[in-house]
Amino acid sequence: MGTDVLLEVEDVWLHRPGAEVLRGVNLTVRCGEVHALLGLNGSGKTSLALTLMGAGGYRPERGRILFDGQDITGLSVTERARLGLTLAWQEPARFEGLPTADYLALGMREPSRERIEEALTAVALSPAAYLSRIVNSALSGGERKRIELAAVYAMQPRLAILDEPDSGVDVLCIGDIMALIRRMGSEGTSVLLITHRDEMAGVADTASLICGGAVIDTGTPAEVREYFAQRCRPHGDLLGNQPWGAEAGGTYQRVVAEGVCSE
Amino acid sequence: MNSVLPAGARSSILEQRDPGWARDFEAILRAYEQAGGKPDALQTPRVASAVISGNRVLAVNLVAGVNIEAEELENGVRARIVVAPGTKVDYPVHLCFGMIPSEGLQEIISEFDIGEGAEVGFLAHCTFPNAVDLKHVMDARIHVRRGATMRYSEAHYHGSVGGIEVLPTTHAQIDEAGQLESEFSLVHGRVGRLEIQFEVDVAARGTVELVAKAYGSAGDQIRVDEVVRLNGEGARGLTRTRAAVRDRATSEVYTTAEGNAPGAVGHMDCTEIVRGEAMARNVPVVVVRDDRARVTHEAAIGSVSKKELETLMARGLDEDAAVDIIIRGMLA
Predict the structure, then answer these.
(1) Yes or no, beta carbons of A77 and B308 under 8 Å apart
(2) Cα–Cα dist B232/A225, whole Å
(3) Is A93 in contact with B307 (Cβ distance < 8 A)?
(4) Which helix (H) or strand (E) holds B299?
(5) Distance, in angstroms, between A155 CA and closest chain B CA?
(6) Which of A160, A167, B59, B110 could form a disulfide with B51 if both were Cys (CB 3.0 to 4.6 A apart)?
């Protein structure tokens, strides 16, 4: 793991209709680091991922995002991707008429059959069976999820944001996904691993905890997992896994306001 | 009318024509390739084929059970294609229609008679690579007889100017347990003005699937009118239209499906993508005359999906390239 800072998020605030979803996020990801971002459903994990990628509707009102020292807050998705930042969506898109091999090749600087096959194999998908499969609804959610991860791996980005990479993937493949994340880190790709499962954070070098739209703790995965398991999970039961914000009846705000998380 | 050649024979009279034949044949083959065709197939004895440029029949090749008669008219060609009853044609019949000049009129009047129990596919490519002020009119009659199957795929290439009108009209009759699959595709180059009219009557247990795909830009105009009448018990019909328009292009899709008999099932499915100042319209008409029939429709008109777009942009593609990939995928 390197020590140079690759991504620096400084006091980022984001307002979405009906709620302030990011409230002064500060986060640092170093070169070659696998950094887990843990948080309950609705804590702001995916909103942060989309904000970092520059998705439409996710431009922060305040704060800035630095990538390798460059302020990318105002850059488009394409411009960020060309700097080496990419995102594996929590719920991957479907593409009518686009074969898997072509989909993987899209982000590669020098597309090669070997690299495409290697990427599919890394997510436990047989190249022979999947190269020509169309990335549409004929594939299961779990298959599309693994193809999305393979596409990100094939791209060899400098920073991969993986939003819940294990969701929808069958249990037998979780180990492959965790191995792939480690492999990306060892091959020089920094990973921001977004998850609400503390077990997944076991592959990380560093972990942070997001709660109520703000990062409230950063430390070793063991420390953060312990905090998460002991103090956050019970609140998940209280919240009933609802999205927080105005539409959730303010339950989450009440938890935060009562100071349970900040004790 | 040209002589009907014996099965398996290659046209000899065509090669004895005027010295310009070879030049014209080569030009239309190049254009055919631009439209996505494979020129080798037009010169393979085991593949039935016809090559028509303007009002000239440049080549006809026949195989056992497939007869093609072609007659040159003042502004086009009249063709009658007959597949003998029970014939299973191994390779699709290849048809090449086109015009090399930039201006003019081409009228293709065709009749397809697919004999009882026969199975045949057609790959048609229509190419007008230099069109500036050109009209291409097609008037087709299709008869798929009892238990026969016909698959017809037609791809167009109209060059980059858009100065063309393409007006294909088809009337099809599908007898009991017959099957017709027809696909029209115009996704490369400019469209110009395209008006597809397709009417089909389907008898008991017959099936029809009509697919139309087009990608319009600049001032292109796309109009699709389809009428499917499911007249026999258990008849089934599906129309699937995929159109994308950008700039100031327009796409109008009018589909009618009639369920006129017990157990008839019809479905109309239309997706149109709109960019820029383009306009798309879909008007489905559902008619049911028997309470045991069922006809449904679904339509989606709008821009490309934001998530699809941003996923591709997150791989480094710019917005235009990403939109193009999404649209071409939809039209694939």
Answers:
(1) no
(2) 66
(3) yes
(4) strand B294-302
(5) 7
(6) B59
Show the tokens assigned to A250: 């303010």
* B124-156 tens-digit pLDDT: 999 888 888 999 999 999 999 999 999 999 999
What are B262-283's pLDDT values in tens digits? Answer: 999 999 999 999 999 999 999 9
pTM of the model: 0.80
Work out the burial of residue A258: count CB atoms within 10 Å of its CB; fewer than 13 is exposed, 13-18 middle, 19 or more buried. exposed
Q: Determine whether the interchain pair A77/B307 forms a contact, defined as Cβ–Cβ distance below 8 Å.
A: no
Distances, alpha carbon A83 to alpha carbons A2, A66, A86, in Å: 19, 11, 9
CA distance B188 to B214: 9
Question: Closest Cα of chain A to B138: distance in Å?
Answer: 29
Pairwise CA distance, residues A219 & B139, whole Å = 74
Q: One-letter amino acid identity for A22?
A: L
In chain B, what residues touch A98 (CB-CB under 8 Å)? 325, 329, 332
Chain B interface, Cβ < 8 Å to A: 305-308, 310-319, 325-326, 328-332
Q: How far is C-alpha A254 from the geometric centre of its chain's CA atoms?
A: 27
CB contact under 8 A, B313 and A78: yes
